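Structure ticket #2291
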Amino acid sequence: MAERNPGVKALVEQALSVLPQELGCDSYAEYLAAYADYRLGGKMPPDSLKGVGEHLDRCDACLEEFKLLLDAMQGADNHLGEPSGR
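Resolution: structure written out below.
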């Protein structure tokens, strides 16, 4: 049998790790900003967002997107009180 691309293998393994009752990545993307708000505020997310954290534990692609979102939100917070330089 031919050797498979390791990236494809990882993607397939990741897809197979989704639990049957779990929403897909696209559905979780809708909740990332709300989950990030709690995390940035140092608060525990409510039970209704618990699945987002569990999904991020298993899905590297969503975790990467979440990290980028956190960075963007932190950057926006850091610039809110700064003078515009005009």
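Closing remark: Helices lie at 6-16, 25-29, 32-40, 50-58, 60-79.
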